[in-house]
Amino acid sequence: MLGRHQHTSPEEKTLVTVEWKKLHQWHTQEKRRLKRAMNKRMRHTNKLEVKQNLILTPGLMA
Questions:
Q1: Which residues contact 16 (CB under 8 A, 6 or more apart)?
Q2: Which pLDDT score, from 0 to 100, does residue 9 have?
Q3: In this predicted model, what pLDDT tens digit does every residue of 18-47 receive, in sequence order?
Q4: 3-class secondary structure for 12-56?
Q5: Short-list 24, 20, 22, 23, CA closest to 8
Q6: Would the CA dihedral through 26, 27, 33, 36 be positive or negative?
């Protein structure tokens, strides 16, 4: 990192911002991907729980 009073050339600035944007974009995509996977798993476990509850509930079978 550069100190507070050091100036970067415009080329260097664009390079840095481009790299930062790439990194940030990857990070947000990764977050989105993880979130979707988590939701998928949650929905799946909820379905399983509902099935399990239906099987275990004796009142419905009578």
A1: 8
A2: 82
A3: 888 998 998 899 999 999 999 999 999 999
A4: HHHHHHHHHHHHHHHHHHHHHHHHHHHHHHHHHHHHHHHHHHHHH
A5: 20
A6: negative
